[in-house]
Design goal:
301 residues, mainly beta, Porin, two-stranded antiparallel ribbon, disordered N terminus
Length: 301
């Protein structure tokens, strides 16, 4: 199993915020909406693939709104999809036995990985033919292409992080494209969804994972090549489950009678003793070590 070093704290915060807002918006709707979870695969296309960008795997979470139109027997629906997706686009081989930034010159390893994430908006046009519902959509997306370097000590070192991830490159690009999909209804609450999407965008810079190696000009350092791709076109495959959301008609509603509970001011309070602040650990970083200079040749008389 490959090792994924995720640096997606900010995207995940954005994901939870967006989903929370979208879920709140469904409470006032009687029509049914969906929350979808997918496993994804991504393939760079055209000149993007030719530049050496690797295939990826990931996941996505999507909110699908109630239908914006009403037709007889709901044979045709227009829904709005909002989602966030993340892909791990491969990692390099580890460069081992590198000197790190400690007084004792502790050793560690370095590897580099490429990642892709996106937030997208997609109107979906669904044809209900029974249990099976084919559909297509057109979408716009904001994609982020990042490259990260992961530095890791061979063993724990006091005062230092065992592993540090730093971002080397980031490219934000606007993408647009279209999808074809098929929904298979499993019952009143669940459905299966399979979809293939193609999107196109302007070029990006990334680090060629096959170029990551020990720097030949140093005794201990890492080197790599930055690749400039003219486009960032991507083909994405999604397979997932759709969870139908329903408004709770019989849920109890909270009421307020204007009364409030005041804290008991007669209780004895104990002031906690503040703990001593722990100094933050230093990041794990490679210490470039130059090659030793050979001694000068003796001068012959």
């Amino acid at each position: 199993m490959f090792e994924i070093t995720l640096n997606i704290l900010s995207p995940m915060k954005s994901l939870f915020t967006v989903l929370f807002i979208l879920l709140l918006s469904t409470t006032g709707l009687k029509a049914q909406s969906y929350l979808n979870v997918y496993l994804n695969g991504s393939c760079p296309m055209d000149e993007f693939k030719d530049s050496g960008y690797k295939d990826g795997v990931g996941f996505s979470i999507e909110y699908l709104s109630p239908s914006l139109i009403k037709t007889k027997n709901d044979w045709f629906q227009i829904r709005l999809g909002f989602g966030l997706e993340y892909f791990y686009q491969g990692g390099s081989k580890k460069v081992t036995d590198l000197v790190f930034n400690t007084p004792n010159n502790d050793l560690g390893s370095v590897h580099v990985n490429n990642q892709m994430s996106a937030v997208y908006f997609a109107p979906k046009f669904i044809f209900n033919t029974g249990r099976i519902s084919p559909y297509f959509d057109v979408f716009g997306a904001s994609r982020s292409f990042t490259t990260h370097q992961v530095n890791r000590f061979n063993k724990e070192v006091d005062g230092y992080e065992r592993e540090t991830t730093k971002r080397l490159l980031r490219n934000g690009r606007a993408h647009y494209g279209a999808s074809l999909g098929l929904i298979y209804n499993l019952g009143s609450r669940f459905a299966f969804d399979a979809r293939v999407s193609y999107s196109t965008g302007n070029g990006i810079k990334f680090i060629g994972l096959n170029s990551v190696k020990r720097d030949d000009n140093y005794e201990s350092n890492v080197a790599y090549n930055v690749v400039k791709a003219p486009v960032s076109n991507v083909l994405v495959f999604r397979i997932g489950v759709m969870f139908r959301l329903k408004r709770c008609e019989n849920c109890p509603r909270s009421s307020s009678n204007g009364s409030s509970t005041r804290p008991n001011s007669n209780r004895n309070t104990v002031t906690p003793t503040p703990k001593a602040a722990t100094p933050p650990k230093k990041p794990a970083e490679v210490k470039p070590v130059p090659k030793p200079v050979p001694p000068p040749k003796p001068v012959e008389n």
